[in-house]
Amino acid sequence: MAYGAxxxxxxxxxxxxxxxRWVYSTNHKDIGTMYIVLALIAAIVGGVLSWxxxxxxxxxxxxxxxxxxQLYNAILxxxxxxxxxxxxxxxxxxxxxxWFVPLMIGAPDMAFPRMNNISFWLTAAGLTLMTLSLFVxxxxxxxxxxxxxxxxxxxxxxxxxxxGILALHLAGAGSILGAINFIVTIFNMRAPGMTLHRMxxxxxxxxxxxxxxxxxxxVLAGALTMLLTDRNFGTAFFAVAGGGDPLLxxxxxWFFGHPEVYIIILPAFGIISQIVSTFSKKPVFGYLGMxxxxxxxxxxxxxxxxxxxxxxxxxxxARAYFTxxxxxxxxxxxxxxxxxxxxxxGGSIEFKAPMMYAIGFIWLFVLGGVTGVVLANAGIDFALxxxxxxxxxxxxVMAIAAIFAMFGGWYYWISKMSGRQYSEGLAKxxxxxxxxxxxxxxFPQHFLGLAGMPRRIPDYPDVYAGWNFVSSVGAAITVVGTxxxxxxxxxxxxxxxxxxxxxxxxxxxxxxxxxxxxxxxxHTHEELPVIGPTGHHHSKxxx
Amino acid sequence: MAQRQRRIMVSAVLLFGVAxxxxxxxxxxxxxxxxxxxxxxxxxxxxxxxxxxxxxxADRMVTVRFDANVNSKLPWAFQPLQKRIEVRPGExxxxxxxxxxxxxxxxxxxxxxxxxxxxxxxxxxxIECFCFTEQTLNPxxxxxxxxxxxxxxxxxxxxxxxxxxxxxxSYTFFPVDGPQPSGAAAAAAAAAAPARAGDS
Lengths: 543, 200
Known about the structure:
The complex is a heterodimer. By secondary structure, chain A is mostly helical. Chain A is built from 15 helices and two strands. In chain A, helix 2 (28-56) runs antiparallel to helix 3 (69-105) and helix 2 packs antiparallel against helix 15. The longest helix of chain A is centred in the N-terminal third of the chain and has 37 residues, at 69-105. Mean pLDDT of chain A is 93; it is low at 4-11 and 535-543. Chain B is an alpha+beta fold. A five-stranded mixed sheet of chain B has the order 3-1-9-5-7. Chain B is flat. At the A-B interface, helix 5, helix 6 and helix 7 of A face helix 1, strand 9, helix 2 and helix 3 of B.
């Protein structure tokens, strides 16, 4: 995908300095950087929480949570929320999205720079509230699903759940504003000639993600408001005693929750498409199929929510429908996997760190996708529901897969963001340590789940001891890999080679961000680039 | 440029509208789900409105069992005056439940209801029921409460319900305090809980 020659850029410096540059920022690159920093901080919080749980589970019996099992509940809740809402979403959508959507479509900035600023600070406030909720009363021990009646006043009488609800409200409002910003930007601010069907796949991914956010997050906001008024103002949306129905929460939550997992993974698809194409030195195979596969995944994502509720008492016909609908998702995801492989096929592949992470992503995503096909079957899910098999499945398919895309994206774009290149040797070591770590960590959890070990419980019978120990060893390796990544960041900024080339990756990197200088100047695309029809696969003009 | 600015504002307003609409839709789920259940008898919601009758009477009988539960916050004794009866679908049936206030104060309660199996809801027609209104009992007071219903003979025409031999009608009494349930409609939305307990 070549977008023509580089254009001149303003080098002169007219922007605020010091703390005002960041706190008042309306610059998409600075806001993107702040989102990435926020995610790096939140990842330490979420990571420490998960490490704490894994240490507890290393051997049978209660090591750290004896008599404090509610604390364990609160930690697993906060781990889920922090990782989903304050690590993956800020890094991928707020971070890479803000940085590269305007650069890739040839826009000078986002459509609403001030709204961009408030999106970030709402998210930051949300993270603060979420962390505080851990220290309020007994902590929110509800799981990230916050099912009533467990989350009702009867079982969580203190304000911790309310803190959590308000944290999600803030982060959700930030996400909705961000989504509106992306959609308006992508629809209205593309450079001349940049038709929808010529947009890089990362931009397509962000567009579909933004629509999912716009349609799903308000439903979470509505459900959370109901829960808040149930808890504090005597309404009875979910309280059976007042004529409510706890199942209503499950329906609303998962109507949001299922699209949410695509919100997490679609930007990853976009990043992986860019990386695979760059390092195979070929255009993405089946560009239109790749774009519309993401659209299809987004659409189907809204009509499969009750596959999270097979054991809630829904009827057999409903289970049959949700099984079939869920299995259909394997088709567009298959299109994506095979198109990535076909892009690599016959390509001149360079195994740089981003490419290693892209291939690692494909491996993890396929593995987690296969167990997803297993779990989609209502009959099998009755046996596996709420076991470690589910934990293994979703950590493979959306948690570590997303982290791989984030690491890959960071290595891919850091020279553009910082003007310095990472050390290839360090990055490869970091990749292998992390890759081995997460697989040793999560693969044995399939066995534990198949053997019936329930999730969210801090203790287990001796029969599960072996694989739990292996899993914890994997967690230790993962911790080393994670810390190495933070070291690589430091090393890059401290010792990284200065990159002066606009494009350090060569002929494979054809998108517009590689036409602006490195590091990308404060203002880019002030003169709009003009995009001509190139490449055999998007000669057809759109609209 | 001015035109682009206009397009940007129009699309932003539209998208804000979509977000607000989705919040509204999540709240609308409450009455919509209720209407859906009442219309279709989904999840064992008995029919209480728009009851259509024919003169048809089935040639087979079906057993109706009666179940009574009380929320632990309500100091009432509550039981059906008959455990089970044989019913001919198409014929009106009158049965009674009895509630006694064992507490020291007057208490108001309201009952949620549903039928098992889930699939027979649309064939179970309630003409009159104590559960349509709130009941207030003085200390020590005891009342007998009627339920009038009939089973639609079409139950034997539907392949999903033709094999049903026993229907369980279940009630659960809750105290009416802060939150005021909106009558039978709210009860219909709540109907699923006891049903699931009976399922497993």
